[in-house]
Amino acid sequence: MPRTGVRERRHTRLTTAGVLFVLAAVWYLGSEAIAAAAFAGYSYSHNYISDLGIPGLGTSGGRDIDSPLALVMNVGFVGHGILFVAAAYLLVTALPATRLRWVYFGFAVVHGVGITMVGIFPAALDASDTNGMVLHVIGAGMAIVGGNLAVITGGFIVLRRVVPPWVPSASVALGMTGLVCLAMLMLSQNAGSSILVAHGVWERGAVYTVQAWELLVAAVILVGAVRQSPAGASTSRSSRW
């Protein structure tokens, strides 16, 4: 009975983590889509995501800003950070202990704190005070770097023993893609012009890898949970959860 009880608690935590990962991705992408729809002339290719969170009218980096639903985007940033950290904690406490699992959780917290800062300290208009913008840029860096490192370590360290081999490989590929896109974005910004693709494309390539990983891991977790019998009688790979 005690072993069955532990298994059931782990199963509940794992499935809850899967649900929270789905909610995090949908919350973020949905908030972005809603805010973008209300922003006249907004371009997913040429505008930054943070443009959607700037309240007021004006310009930012020479781009016209008019985001009437800036609050929606900023709540999307903060909500994603909270959901991502909560899901990460449930994940590391549900699966068999590994010495390095808290490395993943640490990166998840860095991402969560960073993206929360992005929402609390929106990007500034050109004529605005830059103090908040400094915190915004720091938060964005934490969110992107921490998020992609969480993707890599989450798949390769935390999930490696309990999922099909392609999941850790896909996690590493996603995280590395995000970091490469961030590097290309920084190179483009320093060059003062787009390299290969517009700035917004590089930024989204650095950000969307986190949401893609959330949905990937959630699908693997939830499909595995459905296949596992309530009594834990399944002998499939997913029963290791």
Automatic annotation (TrEMBL):
Cited Pfam families: DUF998
Highest taxon, organism lineage: Bacteria
Transmembrane residue ranges: 69-92, 104-125, 137-159, 166-186, 206-226
Keywords for the protein's UniProt record, in alphabetical order: Membrane, Transmembrane, Transmembrane helix
Protein name as catalogued: DUF998 domain-containing protein
